[in-house]
């Protein structure tokens, strides 16, 4: 039988992140075979993952990453069960690694199948479920492309946002971040009026009309008054029409024009935990 040294155990712990005793047991079972021991720990993770498949994973880390040319970004949430794990330095690093890896993938499925240090991302998540003892999964996955893409991660990694601008101009980096902070704080449902689903507008119109009827307004006036309320709805709920949080005297679209007269916001992606 192979002799298992403390150095062997520590090496396996460094590679997998598993506990000291778990690593020792895996090496003993594998008769000192390092790769087999990793596989044993991975299988343990699969068992834990199966046992926790019905658990809620609403905590974790929301992370945004942007490529070197600032023309594309990815934003994900790596979910776990408790806030304690979500704040762990190793967990946040894994989330950051996966967000950067997501820059090269168009779908969550593609990301899960991607290589992560010799195993797939999906296998890594199973492994970490075994190591940590909590359900771990990629929740949200979004990508964004544009002439200039910036990002913002809210304190505590609870919200992460990407924003795209129409051009890479002087001040674009700060402007994109400011608009991303706006989206993080105000949670708009769409970029502009065109991005709001027609069914939402229909519902808002009916709600407005019911309120006006309750106030005793004449039926003939309802359509015109309701249209005015819809304009207010757009102002409150679409990113470019919202009052800019750093200067309420202008809209977000107006703020962007102060950076460059021809500049516009062309898109955003916002993900949040919970």
Name its key features.
274 residues; alpha+beta; three-stranded antiparallel sheet; elongated
Polypeptide structure, described:
By secondary structure, the protein is α+β, with helices and mostly antiparallel strands. The chain has helices at 6-16, 20-29, 34-51, 83-86, 89-102, 108-112, 121-132, 172-186, 198-214, 222-237, 252-259, and strands at 59-66, 72-80, 115-116, 119-120, 137-145, 148-153, 159-165, 243-244, 247-251, 265-272. A three-stranded antiparallel beta sheet has the order 1-2-5. It has a three-stranded antiparallel beta sheet with strand order 6-7-10, with helices on one face. A hairpin with a 5-residue loop joins strand 6 (148-153) and strand 7 (159-165). Helix 2 crosses helix 3 (34-51) and helix 9 packs across helix 10. The N and C termini lie far apart (49 Å). The mean pLDDT is 92.
Concise overview:
Helix content is 47%, strand content 21%.
Sum up the overall morphology in one term.
elongated
Largest sheet geometry = 3 strands, antiparallel
**Unreliable stretches:** none
Rg over alpha carbons? 24 Å
Distance between the termini: 49 Å
User: What is the string of helix and strand elements?
Assistant: HHHEEHHHEEHEEEHHHEEHE
β content, as a range?
15-25%
Helix/strand layout:
Elements: H1 6-16, H2 20-29, H3 34-51, E1 59-66, E2 72-80, H4 83-86, H5 89-102, H6 108-112, E3 115-116, E4 119-120, H7 121-132, E5 137-145, E6 148-153, E7 159-165, H8 172-186, H9 198-214, H10 222-237, E8 243-244, E9 247-251, H11 252-259, E10 265-272
Antiparallel strand pairs: 1-2, 2-5, 3-4, 6-7, 7-10, 8-9
Helix pairs in contact: 1-2, 2-3, 3-7, 9-10
């Amino acid at each position: 039988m192979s002799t298992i040294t403390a150095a062997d155990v520590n090496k396996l712990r460094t590679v997998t992140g598993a506990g000291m005793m778990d690593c020792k047991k895996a090496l003993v079972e594998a008769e000192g075979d390092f790769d087999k021991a990793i596989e044993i720990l991975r299988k343990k993770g699969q068992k834990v993952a199966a046992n926790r498949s019905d658990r809620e994973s609403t905590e974790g880390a929301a992370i945004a990453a942007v490529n070197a040319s600032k023309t594309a970004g990815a934003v994900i949430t790596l979910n776990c069960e408790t806030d304690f794990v979500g704040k762990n330095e190793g967990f946040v690093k894994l989330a950051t690694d996966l967000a950067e890896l997501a820059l090269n993938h168009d779908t969550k499925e593609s990301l899960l199948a991607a290589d992560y240090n010799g195993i797939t991302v999906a296998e890594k998540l199973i492994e970490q479920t075994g190591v940590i003892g909590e359900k771990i999964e990629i929740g949200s996955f979004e990508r964004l492309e544009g002439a200039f893409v910036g990002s913002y991660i809210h304190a505590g990694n609870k919200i992460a946002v990407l924003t795209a601008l129409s051009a890479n101009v002087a001040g674009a980096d700060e402007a994109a971040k400011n608009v991303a902070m706006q989206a993080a704080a105000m949670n708009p449902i769409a970029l502009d009026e065109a991005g709001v689903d027609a069914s939402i507008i229909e519902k808002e119109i009916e709600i407005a009309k019911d309120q006006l009827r309750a106030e005793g307004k004449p039926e003939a006036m309802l359509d015109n008054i309701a249209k005015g309320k819809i304009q207010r709805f757009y102002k409150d709920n679409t990113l470019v029409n919202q009052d800019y949080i750093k200067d309420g005297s202008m809209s977000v679209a107006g703020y962007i024009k102060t950076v460059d007269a021809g500049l516009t916001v062309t898109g955003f992606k916002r993900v949040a935990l919970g």
